[in-house]
Amino acid sequence: MSFIQLLTQYPAFVPSILIGVLLVFWLAAIVGLLDFDSVGPDWIGGHDAGDVDGLPETVLALGFDRLPFSIVISAIGLYWWLLTMLAANLLLPLVPLPVWLGGTVLLAAALVAAVFLAAFSLRPLKPLFAVNAPATRESALGKRCRILTLSVEENFGQAEVDMGDGTRLTLQVYASVPNRLARDAQALIIDFDAGRKRYLVAEFDPP
Questions:
Q1: pTM flag (> 0.85)
Q2: What is the pairing mode between strands 198-203 and 168-174?
Q3: What is the DSSP letter of 46?
Q4: Can you give the residue ranges of every domain in the chain?
Q5: More confident: 36 or 11
Q6: Transmembrane region positions (predicted)?
Q7: Chain-centroid distance, C-alpha 153
């Protein structure tokens, strides 16, 4: 069976749709139309290192806490797609079941395996996202940052701040509208909204 045939037939086309959606999302994030952590449930309240109360036990057991939802779902989707494609090509023809039934069992088994593979492969990345919240909030306030998204709105925006010790942090930000904040513009971090886990920024014109 050719790759295109496999891609467009059941069951492989199901995770292929998810991969297509994820590709569109990441392209939009790359060009600055979206911030990569703006979609999905806020599992840890903005990646606070110790704030895990109320998290689903499954999330904690798998180690998905302190990881952005977009990263987790992308890893699961990729593994699900790869496993489904391989199994549909190699195993499904050998299974003495109707395609719809064998394909459904294959999809479920591949999804379970994908979740565990994603948990295993993403675990080393957790330190990159687990930031000590009190220290970050206090030290980021008053600093200049560079806008990463194409615009900054009241519920949208992302910026990079140099902490002065060689560390660069990517923060979720917001600003009152209208404003002139656009990609690569300089802004000043002036407040932190604990409810939304976002930093308030304002336009900054260097002297």
A1: no
A2: parallel
A3: T
A4: 3-129, 133-203
A5: 11
A6: 12-34, 69-92, 99-122
A7: 20
The Cα 179–Cα 106 span in angstroms is: 51
User: DSSP readout, 49-95?
Assistant: SS--TT--HHHHHHT-TTS-HHHHHHHHHHHHHHHHHHHHHHTGGGS
Per the DSSP assignment, residues forming a β-bridge with 186 are 146
| Residue 146 contacts residue 163 (beta carbons within 8 Å) | no
Architecture in CATH of 133-203 = Beta Barrel (2.40)
Q: Which tokens in the block code for residue 162?
A: 């140099």
Q: Give the pLDDT confidence of 146-195 residue by residue, as tens digits.
A: 999 999 999 889 999 888 777 788 888 999 989 999 999 999 999 998 88
* pLDDT tens track for 50-67: 444 444 566 666 777 777
Give the integer Cα–Cα distance in Å for 167 and 18.
34
Query: Which residue matches tokens 């890893």?
Result: 75
Question: Any idea what DSSP says for residue 15?
Answer: H
Q: Are 92 and 103 in contact (CB under 8 A)?
A: yes
- In whole angstroms, give the CA distance from residue 23 to residue 144: 32
Per-residue model confidence (pLDDT) at position 37: 63
